[in-house]
What we know:
Blueprint: E1 3-10, E2 15-17, E3 20-23, E4 25-30, E5 33-34, E6 41-45, H1 48-63, E7 78-81, E8 86-91, E9 97-103, E10 106-110, E11 114-118, H2 122-129, E12 137-141, E13 156-163, H3 164-177, E14 180-187, H4 188-196, E15 205-211, E16 214-218, E17 226-229, E18 246-252, E19 260-266, E20 269-275, H5 290-293, H6 298-308, H7 317-324, H8 328-340, E21 344-347, E22 352-355, H9 364-368, H10 370-380, E23 384-387, E24 391-396, E25 399-404, H11 413-418, H12 426-442
Parallel strand pairs: 3-12
Antiparallel strand pairs: 1-13, 2-3, 4-5, 4-11, 6-10, 6-12, 7-8, 7-11, 8-9, 9-20, 14-18, 15-16, 15-17, 18-19, 19-20, 21-22, 23-24, 24-25
Helix pairs in contact: 3-8, 6-8, 7-8, 10-12
Pfam family, one: SWIM
Organism: Nonomuraea rosea
Protein name: SWIM zinc finger domain-containing protein
Amino acid sequence: xxxxxxxxxxxxxxxxxxxRLGLSTSGGTALSGAxxxxxxxxxxxxxxxxxxxxxxxxxxxxxxRYHQPRPGWTRDPVVTCDGGRLRFESFSACGGVYAxxxxxxxxxxxxxxxxxxxxxxxxLREALARVxxxxxxxxxxxxxxxxxxxxxxxVVEKKVPLPSxxxxxxxxxxxxxxxxxxxxxxxxxxxxxxxxxxxxxxRSTVWAVPAGRDLRVSASPGRGxxxxxxxxxxxxLMPLLRFAKTLRxxxxxxxxxxAGAWExxxxxxxxTLAVSPEPWRGFSGExxxxxxxxxxxxxxxxxxxxxxxxxxxxxxxxxLSERAGLPIERVRAALTQLGTAGRVGYDLHEAAHFHxxxxxxxxxxxxxxxxxxxxxxxxxxxxxxLLPGAAAEVTTDGGVRxxxxxDGECTCPWWFDHRGSRGPCKHVLAARIAxxxxxxxxx
Length: 443
């Protein structure tokens, strides 16, 4: 499996002492430019206990491999400051669980906007777990706010291998989440009762089916239901239940996937988990990004749209379309391209994209999507023959594959195994690329 290495260099460890939480930062992009140790916020969190528990939950996901657990994963969370909130994000080592804590109840100074990694070490985790009561907590995001520093100025360094499937997951999950609808909304007591009724087995698969103003657990799909494959994968919701005001459950609008998302409304913040369709199935292989990435304009459009992003709380498609001079559909495809480079995410509650900057190389896009690379190679080799009736034949080493362009059907083993549930196969992608080229030639 292809791996990149993410190197963190912190000016000192993150610490929590005497009611002051100092989060040490490592690298990142801000409005003021690239920073080795950016400083984003200094002020108070009026809700200390849920903020500490939520940050610990995000860190727990970053440390966990839900499928075939094994130790050794040390990825640090990402934080983005957009001027009005702090978004803490992480991904599980297996690539099947995405977590985000959006903290909006901030009272202090926003010093810059941008994205960086934050150090979450063992002693900090222990300190976060002890935070309680109603006293406010002073938060500093940036090295100047550290409560305790090493006298010898020692630098904290970490080197973390990042599998390609983990990198791809950040791109896939924002495209998949953009297709979710709100399926249920439960008040705090109902949320607690439902979540505590779930089977204990980490590998159990159930459906959350709306029942009036409540949810019921079902072993089979029901009208408006959302699948939860592997109930143990939402375990980080449980310590937050004592703060829960509302639980919202989201699922795919078209019913083509069994992925889902679970959002807890907490005092002054929200905690969101997106869960892949199967415990063994990470978001990286879902193929939701491939149709948008395959367009000839996507890379160029992404350059234009990317220049217009400014760490806004939400990305407004209409405004971007107007400013970029592009149709909405091309703006969406450009955001997919940017998402593959870690530059945008998706907020289900706001039903909008948001800007962040992860340290991924744009040149990795092709490497991280081998189906798209293979499809373009088929087109370049002349393997695609377009037929009347929106059909095509693609010649491969395994024989001739017959493709329907409209519904994306193919005679290859991939399509028979997945029936479109994990994105188009390389033959369908190749046929669609060739069809677009043919249209352009005739214009």
